[in-house]
Specification:
single chain; mainly beta; Neuraminidase; five-stranded antiparallel β-sheet; five-stranded mixed β-sheet; globular
Length: 455
């Protein structure tokens, strides 16, 4: 009798877990998830989702490239997340990547190739109105994303990243043209030309990922480096140059020694596989080298002494697109969108970088092991056509990390094993009860009744 009872309870519990959480299935092999983590597919059918944020009511806002900004309410616990019906917040097909929202849920920012827009936003209704162009003059034919970072450490400062207009854009040697730069703006002002902003950093080919460390306010960018690189006539593009993580100091530091620094592009590039670089000499991984058409080696000293080197480097062509710190500034999560300019696909994952108490990565600048993958494509040989491609990242108020996949029109949620918050510094906030919660409660009630009967 007792054995039969235990069996019945086990079946009931298994049924509850299986039936309570909506299950979406991808068209490609399931992701490979590192020990200690869970990843669940929670949304499909979006149009090239890129940047995303959460507002002060816990709603998810996501940029759908070529559509505008869409919003979803969120319910459920642990990794069992359910998105409500999609609602259009901004219908503007020119929006393609950048998005920010103020902590009070009253102001929304989004970007197109040419313009940063500001909207009055109502987080209760998930609605916007009165768009205003606050930054213009950014149009280009290549490298089209304009990442937005609204500082939480320095009042009224919006950082806007703008890439170059070619793979190797020689015009970017002039700081005044505004290409391949990070600039700082006052978002309360309107009709600002991009070149009127304060230059935070330049010589940044395409710094798509930008983040502010909540611990100390340090600003970081992840640079997508050049393709098809040659040196002294030799093609070295398979394993050089490295993608870069660059440090730009603190926005509230009036004596920031890194303000306005040049980070090398288009003359200097971070080394990854030094053995494949002609006349490398004493060059090390993480140091910059030159690619001048003649006698590039003689220019390496210029790159070392006159340009700001990267703090970390990543494998070439992994294409880092977004950066998000946890609440303590101890972990920096990175989306690696993946390669096209390489024989063997690399990237296509979400990875993490460890940071120390000093606000800096624990790995040295010459390390090749700074990234630890946590969610990856299990078969990258099918990439990019048959896999997910990570793009944007965002934290919800329960410490869950969400990732967009633009190529597949999907969103994933990432938590620790057992459904625990990935960022436990964020206090859990109650959400609408999910079917999993309700069925779980029924199971508990059933167990209680059975044991009461036994007693």
């Amino acid at each position: 009798m007792f054995t039969e009872l235990i069996f019945t309870l086990a079946v009931l519990q298994a049924w509850a877990l299986a039936e309570s959480c909506p299950s979406l299935t991808a068209s490609y092999p399931a992701p490979s998830v590192a020990n200690g983590y869970e990843a669940r597919l929670v949304a499909q059918g979006l149009t090239k989702p890129r940047g995303l944020v959460f507002d002060n009511k816990g709603n998810m806002l996501v940029v759908e490239r070529g559509v505008g900004v869409s919003a979803f309410s969120i319910s459920g616990s642990s990794s069992c997340v359910t998105l409500g019906e999609k609602k259009s917040v901004v219908g503007d097909s020119t929006l393609n990547h950048g998005i920010e929202v103020t902590d009070d849920g009253k102001t929304l920012y989004a970007s197109s190739v040419d313009t940063v827009f500001k909207y009055e936003y109502d987080s209760t209704k998930m609605a916007s109105k009165n768009p205003k162009a606050i930054i213009t003059g950014m149009k280009s034919d290549d490298l089209l994303t304009r990442t937005l970072l609204l500082s939480r450490k320095s009042k009224n400062k919006l950082v806007v990243s703008r890439g170059g207009d070619d793979n190797i854009d020689l015009s970017t040697v002039d700081v005044n043209n505004g290409l391949s730069q990070l600039r700082i703006f006052d978002p309360t002002k309107e009709s600002q030309n991009y070149t009127a902003g304060t230059t935070l950093g330049w010589g940044l080919r395409n710094a798509v990922g930008v983040a502010e460390n909540p611990k100390d306010g340090g600003v970081w960018s992840a640079e997508n480096n050049a393709d098809n690189i040659k040196r002294d006539g030799f093609n070295i593009h398979e394993n050089n140059p490295a993608e870069e993580l660059n440090y730009h100091g603190k926005l509230d530091d009036s004596n920031n020694p890194l303000l306005g620094k040049n980070y090398g592009y288009p003359l200097c590039y971070g080394a990854w596989n030094v053995s494949e670089i002609p006349s490398a000499g004493t060059l090390q991984t993480g140091q910059q080298f030159a690619i001048a058409e003649a006698n590039a080696t003689t220019q390496d000293e210029f790159c070392k002494d006159d340009r700001q080197g990267p703090r970390l480097v990543f494998q070439p062509h992994t294409s880092p697109l977004d950066l998000k710190f946890d609440g303590k500034g101890e972990n920096l999560y990175v989306t690696l969108h993946g390669s096209w300019n390489r024989d063997d696909p690399v990237g296509y994952s979400v990875s993490v970088i460890k940071f120390g108490a000093d606000g800096q990565p624990t790995e040295s600048s010459t390390s090749r092991n700074a990234l630890t993958p946590i969610v990856s494509n299990s078969n990258t040989t099918g990439c990019p056509g048959n896999c997910f491609r990570p793009a944007g990242l965002a934290w919800d108020r329960n410490g869950r990390l969400y990732m967009t996949s633009d190529s597949t029109g999907e969103i994933y949620v990432i938590v620790k094993a057992g459904g625990k918050a990935l960022d436990d510094s964020r206090p859990a906030v109650s959400v609408a009860a999910s079917s999993r919660d309700m069925v779980g409660a029924l199971v508990v009630s059933a167990v209680a009744c059975v044991f009461a009967w036994l007693l």
